[in-house]
Design a protein that fits this description.
4-stranded antiparallel beta sheet, 29% strand, 29% helix, elongated, Dna Ligase, domain 1
Length: 459
């Protein structure tokens, strides 16, 4: 058997240490103040004791200092760890020369045993077993037998919780929300360990703080306050979560000083790992687009960071709509056509899904080539002289008509769109995209005035 006893530098980090240790062995248990790991079945997998120990300590480095000891049984490893903490050297003969006070079962009887000449484990083992059991109890003999490897060691093995939910006490009362970040970073580190051990990515988490006061200026306060942080994609990136949480906290105000902080996962998904390309030019360093969008949405407001979302509609002004980037179903990556036209201030046209679906969504069509790169927020009605449209002078029609009849299903519209689109030239404005409205009365054969509108401008 091969046991390792670990003692984290921070007591509240013990759970994270245990979760991290589960990747090396499923036999991890908390015994009094330390964690014990039974690693004999994992030695071959990790390349021997030295490599396994080096890897274990390297994995746990981000969580601060650690004291450790190794032995053939958990109780001996725990005893050696206690000697190390006291600054005492390990005896040459193990476990025979270990002092009695490092064995938990013998600690309360150490003074009595010393008076009868027992100063180490070997002296205690030499006493008559029946007398020791009658005087000090059977648990002392059971612990001694387990330390010598003559009795199996049974512990309740550590298991990962189904949901992450950890609460820490603040080192000092926090009076402003940004002061919570120091403890929140420690909680995020533990969250990353849990996510990696569970092979999941977090989509939503909740940070909750406990208020130290129940009343302030005669006003009754809630016991807790919280904020919810959401991400567009499942992630294990603690750096991104830290930046996102910092943006949220910078805009929060505490009703009263806080003394405890709690972080729990609200929504997670199975984690498939981060995809990487073999091509070096595709491995772009820096922050991903959806992470930048999330941070800007928190900093500037969700309504001020928007993305275009394609719609199945033939009307140019309704081929896409603008939605909050944080709330959009798929804010990143944007469609290629939307990326090219995302700088337009109004409603740049996108290829219709119906037309593209018949010939292949990725192939541009001749009709798509006629769309201008710039649409007006609202079509501008043009003056008509002798049935000829004018915009800074008379317009010359170069191409068209492109007939459009659609929108009869739209209950919010005044009627179906009946239009004939043309490409026209203006001596002062250049190439324009105009349409002639075909009124319902005209379609039925009755007289109706001709209306022309300017909807797009070519660069």
């Amino acid at each position: 058997m091969y046991w390792i006893a670990l003692l984290p530098s921070h007591e509240d980090e013990r759970a994270a240490w245990g979760w991290r240790a589960l990747q090396f062995t499923p036999r991890v248990a908390q015994v009094e103040e330390a964690l014990v790991l039974e690693l004999s079945a994992s030695l071959r997998l990790w390349g021997g004791r030295k490599r396994l120990l080096a890897r274990l300590l390297h994995e746990c480095e981000p969580f601060g200092g650690v004291q450790w000891a190794q032995a053939r049984s958990s109780l001996v490893a725990l005893a050696l760890l206690r000697l190390k903490l006291r600054g005492e050297a390990s005896p040459e003969r193990l476990p025979q020369e270990l002092p009695l006070d490092v064995l938990s079962a013998a600690r309360e009887h150490a003074a009595t045993l010393e008076r009868i000449g027992c100063r180490n484990w070997d002296d205690l083992r030499a006493l008559p077993r029946a007398g020791v059991a009658r005087r000090f109890g059977a648990p002392l003999l059971d612990a001694l037998d387990a330390a010598y490897g003559e009795r199996p060691e049974r512990y309740p093995w550590l298991q990962l919780p189904e949901e992450f939910d950890v609460k820490l006490e603040l080192a000092a009362l926090a009076t402003t929300a940004p002061e919570l970040m120091w403890t929140a970073q420690r909680l995020l580190g533990q969250l990353q360990v849990w996510l990696q051990a569970r092979q999941r990515g977090v989509l939503a988490l909740e940070l909750e703080w406990t208020l130290d006061l129940r009343r302030l200026n005669g006003v009754r306060l809630p016991g807790h306050e919280q904020l919810v942080v959401r991400t567009a994609q499942p992630t294990q990136d603690v750096a991104h979560l830290r930046r996102l949480l910092g943006e949220h906290l910078s805009r929060c105000t505490l009703s009263a000083p806080a003394n405890h902080l709690r972080l729990r996962s609200l929504e997670t998904l199975p984690w498939g790992g981060a995809s990487r390309s073999l091509l070096p030019e595709e491995n772009i360093k820096g922050e991903r687009l959806h992470q930048l969008v999330e941070r800007l949405s928190v900093r500037l407001g969700a309504a001020n960071v928007v993305v275009p979302v394609a719609q199945a509609d033939h009307r140019p002004e309704r081929m896409q709509r603008w939605e909050s980037a944080r709330l959009a179903p798929h804010p990143s990556p944007l469609p290629k056509r939307a990326r090219e036209l995302s700088s337009a201030p109004a409603f740049p046209p996108l290829p219709s899904r119906e037309r593209a679906g018949a010939r292949g969504a990725a192939e541009p069509t001749a009709v798509d080539a006629l769309y201008p790169p710039w649409l007006l927020p609202q079509p501008l009605r043009l003056e008509v002289h002798g049935e000829k449209p004018h915009y800074h002078g008379p317009l010359r029609l170069l191409a068209g008509p492109q007939r459009l009849e659609t929108g009869w299903w739209d209950a919010g519209a005044q009627g179906p769109a009946l239009r004939d689109y043309f490409i026209a030239r203006s001596d002062e404005a250049g190439l324009l995209w105009v349409y002639r409205e075909r009124l319902a009365s005209a379609a039925e054969g009755g007289p109706a005035p001709v209306r022309w509108y300017l909807q797009g401008i070519y660069a």
